[in-house]
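Re: the request from the purification team.
They wanted to know what the chain is likely to look like in 3D before they choose a buffer screen. I agreed to run a prediction and write the result into the notebook, where they can find it.
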Amino acid sequence: MSNRLKKANRIVVKVGSNVLTRSDGMLDITRMSAIVDQLAELRRAGVEVILVSSGAVASGRGELRGSVDTSRLDELSARQLFSAVGQAKLINRYYELFREHGIHCGQVLATKENFARRGHYLNQKHCMAAMLSNGVLPIVNENDTVSVTELMFTDNDELSGLIATMMNADRLIILSNIDGLYTGDPSAPGSVLLPRIEPGENPSDFVASGKSSLGRGGMGTKCRIACRVASEGIEVVVANGRRDGIIVPLAGIGECNMPHTLFVASPTPASGMKKWLAHSDAFAKGILRVNDGAADAIRHGASLLAVGVEAVEGDFDADDIVTVADTSGSIMAWGKIGLDSDGARAALGQPGGRPLIHADYLYVDGNAFF
């Protein structure tokens, strides 16, 4: 039975390390070439493409194996070294492969700091928009050479979600080494592929907690990111990047009989500000602890007023991101606060006055069950 997807005008394709590397840690050039061929076909069909590519660290590790003794390096130093070597090899290979199709590509290296403030976020967006409007295909990866542990993305799944929402993509395609989300461990008898996750559904019971052998994330991360991105009005597909010819039909060109899991987009897309806020929880500088009344109000779209805040934790400036915790201590929202920490403490519990966080700058997490 065919399952034709609507043709997307702009897609983000995330390719994981387990797709791009062989078992010995070296780049799988045949697979890279096949992926580039498919992306070139999409470009010829009028689809704008952004590629979020893992593989730099694994590529560098494979390249240096046997020639450099890295046993005395700590984990962060080794990662930076592998990334510096592997990133050059990875982007050069992409450059040569895309050039065979007459396509210009450009490298975009990102850290969390590029997304932490609205101004930096918009600068990154404008850069990539200029690339797309001039026919240059952006290839995005985390800048592991300068990232430190607390500033790292969970993995490139998280980065691809940020890019998809920032660039208002129609669809995010996450390619791993399994066919999608299953009703259990994919290798266990009786596990069934879930072809479709509707808005508001909770698939967390089906997600295995293990991580991939080469990347930092796992299916749990993919599921969490996919649910969040879909809630912002962008379709997300999780599929097996090692299946030949899988990308083109997942972009909506021709019939799609390839196994995959589709996270259906919410019918009410988030605004540009909300899309930024949705991925800003990792940048929070403080915590506002609210009472039950305030928690209920903001769940229904209200602003956060000082009268509903019971405690202010941390030091922050006006316009920083802060998280909002309910009476159980669970993080339920985050947003851009209008006062610094001293001003918020001074206003604590007082009625009237302007909101601490206006509803337009407040994101309530509908996926807090992950």
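For the purification team: The CA atoms of residues 10 and 169 lie 5 Å apart.
Please add any questions underneath this entry.
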